[in-house]
Design brief:
Blueprint (H helix, E strand, L loop, with lengths): L2 E9 L2 E8 L2 E6 L5 H11 L4 E2 L4 H14 L18 H10 L8 E2 H7 L6 H9 L12 E2 L14 H14 L17 H11 L1 H10 L12 H11 L4 H13 L10 H6 L2 H6 L4 H15 L6 H5 L3 H8 L7 H10 L12 H10 L8 H8 L6 H18 L4
Parallel strand pairs: 1-4, 5-6
Antiparallel strand pairs: 1-2, 2-3
């Protein structure tokens, strides 16, 4: 096998890499903790590879991976893989794994049976553990016989596997679309940006500096699941929260979309705490689960018919769920176009930067100024968050 080159590329899960040779793609590398480490891992696997622009067929494979990880329908079955140097058993396992549709899972035993080698589930697991074509050969869609997630050799382990399954669960259509229109946001972005430009000259300058509106939504199978995840993530770094949430999900069979309310209520405090949850978060999850079982948490269909303030009023009845948490759900899960989280420090800081204020405004003052941005205050909020990012990028390094 002759490796010609490799290239790094951005995805929703981080910066990945793809390597290729004359016969097709030879490897896909999921993100490591740092970009430099991702590059090092590729060179460890393919020492002769050079970092060069990919040819057209590899660009198409790269773009298909990016689309899949954005939650879009994307067919990777046409990507040409170079398996020439792989053991025949591994090739057969990978060929079968490539037939698993996005949003579905099968067991190691299922693959062994389709191979005509019943009893070789362990060998199937070992082959998938050495899978050089992550995502293209979707080993993350293979789980243990009892529905538990099993292992995952990529950086992040089970947390990464859960994230991939959650992304694909959205695009597979099992939960339906949360959003009208193009499936990415609840209004016409061009119309929203034009309105903001016309209504606020300072915001217009910020829009020019930032560029097009690019908010991507995180889909969810239910409001209950979104709130459960939000509770776990509160006051933690993303990596720590993802690890704990993965441990919680791993307590339950087939929980790659998150545990159900009934499952949480049947689980002891000791098991939940053992997964890393604090006492306060355990109590919050139990309160959320009780209200869900009682029918007090709206379904996605019900939420579609509710006004923003009604959703906030209903969901803040849950222990540990405040207004800010529901506003984040309205923006990033439901794509509501007119939300301005005035208590969010990032937005207030972005306002101070954009409007050249010495300190962030009081929430009431921000609310008053932001009235002119309606009915697209979500879009304005996104640009104010980006103002903080821009300031960090241009700030001279010490």
């Amino acid at each position: 096998m002759t490796v010609q080159g490799f290239s790094l590329f951005d995805t929703t899960i981080g910066r990945c890499a793809i390597a290729w040779g004359e016969r097709g793609v030879v490897g896909v590398q999921l993100p490591e903790g740092r970009e430099s480490r991702t590059r090092e891992r590729v060179l460890e696997r393919f020492p002769a590879a050079r970092e060069i622009p990919p040819p057209p067929d590899v660009r198409r494979a790269r773009d298909a991976i990016v689309a899949l990880l954005c939650g879009e329908s994307s067919d990777l079955a046409t990507v040409t893989l170079d398996m020439e140097t792989l053991p025949p058993f591994h090739r057969r396992v990978y060929e079968i794994a490539r037939t698993i549709p996005a949003g579905a899972t099968v067991s190691y035993g299922d693959i062994a049976e389709r191979l005509g080698a019943r009893g070789s589930a362990r060998a199937v697991g070992q082959a998938l553990g050495r899978n050089p074509f992550a995502i293209v050969v979707p080993c993350h869609r293979v789980v243990a016989a009892d529905g538990r997630l099993g292992g995952f050799s990529a950086n992040g382990g089970i947390a990464t596997k859960l994230r991939l399954l959650a992304i694909e669960g959205a695009q597979a259509g099992a939960q339906g679309s949360l959003f009208d229109g193009d499936g990415t946001f609840g209004c016409d972005p061009d119309a929203a940006v034009k309105h903001l430009r016309d209504s606020d000259a300072v915001l217009a300058r910020l829009i020019d500096a930032v560029g097009p509106f690019r908010l991507r939504l995180d889909r969810t199978p239910s409001i209950f699941t979104a709130l459960a995840e939000a509770i776990v993530y509160q006051q933690l770094t993303g990596r720590a929260a993802a690890t704990i949430y993965a441990r919680v999900c791993a307590l339950f069979p087939r929980a790659h979309q998150g545990p159900t309310a009934e499952q949480l209520l049947r689980t002891s405090d000791a098991r939940l705490r053992g997964a890393g949850l604090s006492r306060a978060k355990t109590l919050s999850l139990r309160d959320l689960a009780r209200k869900a079982v009682e029918g007090r948490i709206p379904t996605l269909t019900e939420v579609q018919r509710m006004e923003d303030e009604s959703i906030i009023e209903r969901l803040t009845e849950v222990r540990g769920i405040g207004r800010w948490t529901v506003e984040m759900l309205l923006i990033f899960r439901l794509g509501r176009p007119d939300v301005l989280p005035v208590d969010d420090y990032g937005i207030r800081k972005g306002f101070a930067i954009a409007f050249r204020k010495r300190k962030p405004p009081h929430p009431k003052d921000l609310q008053k100024h932001g009235a002119r941005w309606a009915p697209y205050r979500t879009v304005a909020s996104w640009y104010l968050w980006r103002a903080t990012d821009l300031a960090a990028e241009v700030r001279p390094k010490r």
